[in-house]
């Protein structure tokens, strides 16, 4: 009886781990696509963004566009690894989501709603990847 309960608990834990990893992978992919689009917008046309002359972390919008574009491509690539449940993808996913949160925080004055939305999405990615503990 005890092994049946343990076996069921193990199956439930594995299903939960798989579900949260897939959730994080999908969210990471979507956030990566949004970062990719924002990068393209910043590179192609700086007029879309708000002009903030007195911002402490002022950068050239074309440079920010390239940063967002690269982070988006890496995020989309890592999400493909998460669909295979690769351990390296979980570690890199947390790292890239953390970097993307910092990049989006620094670009809040240029596009505030989009930045805050992406910060929330990347925070959920980190949560989804860190909450699951694999049983040995």
UniProtKB/TrEMBL annotation:
Regions crossing the membrane: 20-44, 64-84, 91-108, 114-132
The DUF7144 domain, residue ranges: 21-133
The entry's keywords: Membrane, Transmembrane, Transmembrane helix
Family matches, as Pfam families: DUF7144 (PF23636)
InterPro entries: DUF7144 (IPR055568)
This protein's record includes keyword Ligase: no
Keyword Chloroplast: no
Protein name in the entry: DUF7144 domain-containing protein
Lineage of origin: Bacteria, Bacillati, Actinomycetota, Actinomycetes, Kitasatosporales
């Amino acid at each position: 009886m005890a092994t049946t309960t343990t076996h069921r608990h193990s199956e439930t834990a594995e299903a939960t781990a798989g579900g949260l990893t897939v959730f994080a992978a999908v969210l990471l992919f979507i956030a990566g696509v949004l970062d990719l689009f924002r990068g393209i917008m910043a590179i192609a046309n700086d007029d879309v963004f708000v002009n903030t002359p007195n911002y402490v972390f002022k950068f050239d919008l074309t440079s920010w566009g390239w940063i967002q574009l690269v982070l988006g491509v890496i995020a989309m690539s890592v999400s493909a690894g998460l669909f295979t449940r690769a351990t390296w993808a979980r570690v890199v996913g947390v790292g890239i989501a953390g970097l993307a949160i910092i990049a989006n925080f620094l670009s809040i004055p240029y596009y505030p709603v989009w930045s805050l939305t992406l910060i929330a999405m990347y925070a959920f990615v980190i949560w989804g990847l860190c909450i699951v503990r694999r049983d040995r």
